[in-house]
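User: Could you write out the 3D structure of this protein bound to guanosine-5'-diphosphate? I've included everything you need below.
Assistant: Certainly. Input first, then the structure.
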Amino acid sequence: MPKAYRSGFVAIVGRPNVGKSTFLNKVLGQKVAIVSSKAQTTRHRIKGIHSEDDAQVVFVDTPGIHKPLHLLGEQLVKTAVDSLSEVDLILFLLDGRTSAGRGDKYVADLLSKVNKPVVFVLNKVDSLKVDPEVLQSYEALGEHVSVHVISALYGKGVQPLLKEIVERMPEGPPFYSEDEVTDQSERDLAGELVREAVLRQTSEEVPHAVAVRVDEFKERDGGKTFIQATIFVERDSQKGILIGEKGSKLKEIGAAARQSIEKALDRSVYLELWVKVLPNWRKQAKSLKQLGYVVD
Ligand code: GDP
Ligand code: MG
């Protein structure tokens, strides 16, 4: 008897910066979600599709869940919680290097309201040796069907976790064709990679005030892809920081972004970047809509 085909949806949740996007990229073997050491990097729901001979798992990377501080923050939390009602399994990513904290408790309380099986994933345990006291703090955090200790960065412990995930999927046909890895368009990914480059090359003040809109994305003769994008910030001072002396900072950002876009798209790219000030865009539903965030 051939094994029945299994397929389902898995949400990856957890507070900001615990390694959700890193985990997704590792499972998929390629970058679909941007990663940064700064919190609140992922703003949209990104699906990553993992296919095996007799199973398909559709992962949903969510924005980190945290107590909302402004409208964008509220929207991010809502996006994360909404995505939970549609899934077969929830992966709750935690930082296994330290005991459970208030941020984890906040997520755990939200999860307790969603009636879905939850797997606790203690990430960033690069040695795979978890402190018993730390483990205990997580076991007490809320209901769960199992606990895994992994290092998403180094790919340790990921295979056994993936095996359990597949086993927990219901029987059913695939949702996507086997060669699809993400539902994100190349255009959106390019915009995200520009944002990642900005996050990496700026410090404290700028990162959260940044949004990127891709204005043009077209194939040109000679196989080059022409991309023009606008980086939005909230204040003139931030614009100054991003542009740098004689445009040096923007040049660096552009070079880094172009490299990572070329790697992701596997072809050469001509990238043109503009910087614009859109005052208080994070607080205004209208500008959030303009930038493509879901606001309702
Ligand atoms: P997210 O906000 O939950 O999506 O977190 P990211 O995937 O963007 O990762 C946040 C930071 O944690 C990045 O600097 C990652 O390189 C780092 N990170 C993620 N997973 C691991 C891990 O397994 N070990 C270590 N040491 N760092 C990790
Ligand atoms: Mg992320």
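The beta strands are 6-13, 46-52, 55-61, 89-95, 118-123, 146-149, 211-219, 225-233, 269-277.
User: Perfect, thank you.
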